[in-house]
Amino acid sequence: MFAYFCLLSVLILVLVDVVFFITVSTTLENQSRNRVVNVGNEVVRVIDLSPGVTLSDSVFWRYREEGIIAYILSPDGAILHPDGVEISETRIREALDHAARLKDEEDAAYRFEGFMNFCTNVSLNGESGVLLVSCSLGIVRDTVSNLQIYMLLVSGVALALAFVIAYSISQKLTRGLKSLSDSAVKLAKGDYTVQFVNVDYKEVAQLSDTLNEMRDEVKKSGDFQREILANVTHDLKTPLTMIKAYASMIKEISGDNPEKREKHLQVIIDEADRLTGLVNDVLSVSKVSSNLGNLNPKVFNLTEYLYGIISKFGYLQQSGYNLMLDIDPDRYTRADEEKIGQVIYNLMGNAVNYTGEDKTVYISLKTSMDGQRIKLSVRDTGKGIPKDELPHIWDRYYRSEENHVRPVKGTGLGLNIVKVILQSHSFDFGVESEESKGSTFWVDFPCVPAAPPEEDSGVSGD
Ligand code: ADP
């Protein structure tokens, strides 16, 4: 990183220097050009104003201090004015040639042999000649080379400063990134206590915040997986122990006693059912979570569908359970039928499991006043759910200890399945519960007209 910073500084300085020198030398050269043109025009004016007068040499020397001298050349190349000056043959020839080529609109200034020149044809005392005004570009060259030295010195200092700054910035940045990468390695090894710290630069600070959030999420997910594993293994262990214990009892004690054997076998069957329920719930949770994008919504008769599920709970009547129904006829909704079946099944299962001594469960399906919604309510008369537990009952593996007044088949997964399915449909749902009076779980379905025949036939063809 340091090398890149240095390279960038060098490039910037070289670019600045080059642009500076080009600008300075062109500006100075243009100034000399303007000056010789102005001086040339001034001398021409003096010559024009004094026809027939022999001009003093001082007219031609006047701008000597600026390095500018004016000459009058005869057409054959002799220097007529001023006296005692020398000028190279080539410059004289170039001036005469240039003057010969001149047209009115042509630029009379040109650069030649380190001089900026202006020339024009003049007539002096009736004789024709060429006025040449020359300015040495030596001064310009000297100024540029002086500036060059200053610029190089300034560039050197700037470069040294840039290197120092680049070094400290790159050190700080690499230190920050290195600490982030060290922490990431620790996190990868399972150390969830690592802190991604860096506040030197805003972007790095943001990155470390994001990494800290990621660490929390990874930790949560790890904790969650461990929790699931602990719950599942715990839930599997109890029925398995029971099954083993009762099977041994049948083998060793109750084998010949039909009454006892029957009782023990029933325990084994119950525990095996419990195991099946647990395994099914675990499978549903993962299936529902991974299949959320695969909803298969269609219009179906919710009333009929609800009656179908209720009929599966019919066997409970033998155990003294009452299902009290208040169901509007032929209400249609649009949803994933199979998944809604899971929701209703779970809510009814819970109501049966947790209802009070009267063993009554109330199920209603009622249309709203505006006819837009159908509300399914499943009410029990159990102990209810304490207020502080209400927000948690939808969490995976949440099971209230208090509610287990009698052996209830439960895994703590049912309401989570309900929540995930209803959220994926964007349906409203909730629970109202009063302690020692019971709980009412409800779901709001959209009420839609019966499916047109095409859709019906399409559905049945699935
Ligand atoms: P479980 O398999 O334990 O019933 P659920 O996810 O279906 O798991 O329910 C989570 C918890 O919510 C239950 O353990 C129970 O404490 C509480 N709960 C659910 N339904 C009822 C209900 N109808 N009455 C009282 N408590 C309930």
Can you put this structure into words, describing what you see?
The chain has about 450 residues and is an alpha+beta fold. Helices cover about 55% and strands about 15% of the residues. The chain has three domains: about 1-140, Beta-Lactamase (2-Layer Sandwich); about 220-275; about 290-450, Heat Shock Protein 90, CATH 3.30.565.10. It is built from ten helices and twelve strands. The chain has a five-stranded antiparallel beta sheet, with helices on both faces. It has a five-stranded mixed beta sheet with strand order 7-9-10-12-11, with helices on one face. A hairpin with a 5-residue loop joins strand 9 (about 360-365) and strand 10 (about 375-380). It is rod-shaped, with a radius of gyration of 51 Å. The structure holds adenosine-5'-diphosphate (ADP). Adenosine-5'-diphosphate (ADP) binds next to helix 8 and helix 9.
Give a short overview:
The protein has 10 helices and 12 strands.
Quickly name the level 1 CATH class of the largest domain. Answer: Alpha Beta
CATH architecture of the largest domain: 2-Layer Sandwich
The structure class reads alpha+beta
| Number of discrete domains | 3
Distance between the termini: 62 Å
Low-confidence stretches: 402-408, 455-462
* Beta-strand content estimate: 15-25%
The helix content is 40-55%
Average of the residue pLDDT scores: 84
H/I helix tally: 10
Q: Reading side by side through the largest sheet, how are the strands ordered?
A: 2-1-5-4-3
In CATH, the topology of the largest domain is named Heat Shock Protein 90
Looking at the structure, what is the overall shape? rod-shaped
Question: In sequence order, what are the helices and strands, one letter per element?
Answer: HHEEHEEEHHHEHEEHEEHEEH
CATH homologous superfamily assignment of the largest domain: Histidine kinase-like ATPase, C-terminal domain
Q: Report the radius of gyration as a whole number of Å.
A: 51 Å
